[in-house]
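quick q for whoever's on today - can somebody do inverse folding on this one?? i tried earlier but teh output was garbage lol. tokens:
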């Protein structure tokens, strides 16, 4: 314990979901919004920037977007847990992946008579989106568990690995299949193509890629070859100077029949672990709405290696669950007898409760949770969502004087940001600003302090931007291409206080991220941080 509590009132942590900080103005709904409360806070209160993506939240690399799940894990845990590549590798090494519900359901489907296990993914060891070793492990395990037939649909890399290295992976993999196959098990490559041509669309920017992938993998449409090596070599000769990522799609066939059409009763695994290029094809394979004609939608069991978007639950079935997290802030405060209040609307309620508490569905002693039911209308049609009701609930909880630590999530910037509607995202940010204008004065009246942050960016980039010019990419209509995904931008941390706490501030430490918030909250409440946590950002 610290010698004394630094404040007399409660500590309130406010998460503005999807609120990144970017100097770029094109497509920046946050910059375009009228937000007098936040503008004032940035000018008058201590504020710093936090990393909310990549390694700062346990993703494999800093090219990986954060998301609401890992963001709230980090906020509530005070620690950085492995996500993505490291998480999958450990799950395979321990065997936990094979015991999970996702894999059990995939194997049950694939083991049925006349069923096939299909594996789709980036075919390399680049370890940015996937790893070929994960694919091999799945095939070995499928054979052990009695699956009779597997088909692999390969997306050639040449981006995270040398640009014409496809055969360096393909030929040894074919040898691997020869050794693996026997009279009871047959695994073969069925289709493929360059990652920039088919399947791996990013940010839903080019649905034509997804449609071409669908036609290749699912329908078996495309130029036929006897094997994948022949396809790669022939296409390279035909397209002089082409790199692997740009190779056209191909289908492996025997006697004119594709080897690997995806049909009713099959099981499909997308073995990519990174989400940005996995969401669109997942939507198509799960039967969701997509802007192209699929011709037929097979009834399959589909799973992603991970859940690529926890906000939208894409996909519903996945093989590797979130990490097991211990010694969270909620548990630490509960042990210390500090009562807590958590509130959000349905869209983010699990994030301020389940994910915040280290992927636990139960409350700690002294915790109160309040869920505000979300509206069942498109978010762009009601961008204010439940921001007013969340502010109401927080104000009542503050005025009750029952709680020393309160937390809430305003989902607007993220959920409306996902729609790609710039005007609606602007309105969403303005709604959050209005809610803050009502909530923060009550925090001050109760003698408290507010920490205002975000779990990742989204509304800060509503357009696809050209990396060289920084200007929006244009759709065929001439309008800017909408971006619906999270961003790589940092998020703010603002310390809002009354006059009696002007001796408190924030320090911008190296590599400061969301996991530093737990220790910061604990120190404000008069507690030392847990030894496992990242350092506090509080400056006295």
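ok took a stab at it. sequence:
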């Amino acid at each position: 314990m610290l010698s004394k509590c630094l404040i007399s009132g409660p500590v309130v942590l406010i998460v503005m979901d999807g609120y990144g900080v970017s100097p770029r103005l094109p497509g920046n709904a946050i910059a375009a919004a009228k937000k007098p409360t936040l503008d004032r806070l940035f000018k008058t209160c201590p504020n710093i920037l936090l990393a909310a993506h990549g390694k700062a939240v346990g993703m494999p690399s800093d090219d990986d977007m954060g998301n609401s799940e890992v963001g709230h894990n980090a906020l509530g845990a005070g620690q950085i847990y492995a996500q993505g590549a490291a998480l999958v590798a450990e799950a395979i090494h321990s065997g936990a992946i094979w015991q999970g519900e996702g894999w059990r359901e995939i194997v049950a489907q694939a083991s049925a008579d006349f069923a096939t296990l299909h594996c789709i993914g980036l075919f390399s060891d680049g370890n940015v989106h996937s790893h070929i070793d994960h694919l091999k492990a799945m095939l070995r395990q499928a054979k052990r568990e009695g699956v009779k037939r597997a088909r692999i649909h390969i997306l050639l890399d040449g981006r995270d690995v040398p640009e014409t290295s496809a055969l360096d992976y393909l030929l040894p993999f074919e040898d691997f299949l020869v050794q693996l196959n026997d009279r009871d098990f047959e695994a073969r490559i069925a289709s493929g193509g360059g990652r920039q041509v088919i399947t791996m669309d990013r940010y839903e920017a080019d649905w034509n890629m997804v449609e071409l992938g669908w036609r290749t993998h699912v329908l078996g449409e495309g130029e036929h070859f006897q094997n994948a090596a022949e396809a790669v070599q022939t296409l390279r000769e035909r397209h002089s100077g082409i790199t692997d990522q740009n190779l056209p799609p191909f289908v492996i066939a025997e006697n004119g029949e594709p080897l690997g059409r995806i049909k009713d009763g099959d099981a499909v695994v997308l073995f990519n672990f990174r989400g940005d290029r996995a969401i669109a094809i997942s939507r198509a394979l799960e039967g969701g709405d997509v802007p192209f004609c699929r011709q037929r939608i097979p009834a399959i069991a589909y799973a992603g290696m991970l859940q690529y978007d926890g906000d939208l639950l894409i996909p519903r079935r996945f093989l590797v669950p979130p990490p097991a997290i211990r010694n969270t802030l909620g548990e630490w405060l509960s042990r210390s007898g500090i009562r807590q209040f958590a509130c959000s609307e349905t869209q983010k309620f699990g994030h301020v409760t389940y994910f915040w508490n280290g992927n636990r569905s139960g409350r700690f002693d002294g915790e109160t949770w309040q869920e505000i039911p979300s509206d069942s209308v498109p978010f762009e049609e009601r961008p204010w969502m439940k921001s007013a009701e969340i502010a109401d609930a927080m104000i009542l909880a503050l005025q009750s004087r029952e709680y020393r630590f309160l937390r809430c999530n305003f989902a607007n910037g993220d959920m409306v940001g996902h729609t790609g509607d710039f005007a609606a995202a602007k309105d969403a940010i303005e709604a959050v600003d209005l809610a803050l204008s009502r909530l923060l004065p009550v925090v001050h009246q109760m003698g408290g302090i507010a920490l205002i942050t975000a779990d990742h960016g989204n509304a800060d980039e509503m357009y696809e931007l050209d990396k060289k010019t920084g200007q929006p990419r244009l759709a065929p209509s001439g309008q800017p291409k909408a971006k619906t995904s999270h961003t790589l931008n940092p998020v703010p941390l603002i310390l809002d206080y009354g006059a009696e706490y002007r001796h408190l501030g924030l320090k911008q430490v190296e590599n400061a991220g969301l996991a530093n918030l737990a220790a910061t909250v604990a120190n404000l409440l008069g507690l030392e941080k847990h030894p496992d946590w990242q350092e506090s950002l509080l400056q006295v």
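fwiw The chain has a mean pLDDT of 94. also The two ends are 16 Å apart (CA to CA). so keep that in mind when u check it
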